[in-house]
Amino acid sequence: MDKLLTMKSAKELLGVSTRTIQNWDKEGKIKIVRTPGGRRRIPFSEVERLLGNTLSSQRKLAIYSRVSSNEQKQKGDLERQIEFIKGNLSSDFTIVEIITDVGSGLNDKRKGLLKLMKLARENQISEVAVRYKDRLTRFGYGYLEEYFSSHGVKIHVLDKEAETKTVQEELADDLISIITSFSGKLYGLRSEKHKELKKTAKEAIMDVQDLSNEDKERSNRSQE
């Protein structure tokens, strides 16, 4: 009689999450039996089959990188993120896609992000690698993590340290990017009005940022 494994034992042997096994069950990729109490049990023969035939094709990875502006792209920030990720990946991943975005982390309609979500939805990838968590999104990371997990996709954040830019600097870049995008759609990217608005917005945001830094310095001095 075939030995029956608990979900915990099976997922540890297969090196996948409980959600992945549940998805495989729904898709008919694995045979699962239920106890009289309704609990899932996985035949050991199924684990052996998956280890021999399926698991090797499951670790398909997409690399994702993002910058807020074309200025950052021209400085090579996208390429540096990608090279960092490649240099810190284990060798058992097959890189399926390298996806990039130039745009605000507040924008949830980015073409690259939508493509990444589609790859997960269509079971074309099982892993996503980013350098920093906020490259995927500025806010609501937990929702995206749950989305990818529901499709059996794990997110790998390879650099847990803070970025060289402060949160205020990144938000300033995001705001400038958003204003630039709206202005370009309203007036056209080559129009003088667009260029003037872009310049004015950048100066105003930088002024606010400078005032914020001055307030911090005064506060620090008063505490000394």
Task: Summarize the structure in words.
Helices cover 53% and strands 15% of the residues. The chain has 224 residues and is α/β, with parallel strands linked by helices. The chain contains nine helices and seven strands. The radius of gyration is 23 Å and the shape is elongated. It folds into three domains: 4-57, Multidrug-efflux Transporter Regulator, Chain: A, Domain 2, CATH 1.10.1660; 60-157, 3-Layer(aba) Sandwich (Rossmann fold); 167-223. Helix 8 packs antiparallel against helix 9. The strands form two sheets. The chain has a four-stranded parallel β-sheet, sandwiched between helices.
What is the structural class?
A: alpha/beta
- The 3D shape can be described as elongated
CATH top level class name of the largest domain: Alpha Beta
Order of helices and strands: EHHEEHEHHEHEHEHH
Percentage of residues in DSSP E strands: 5-15%
Number of domains: 3
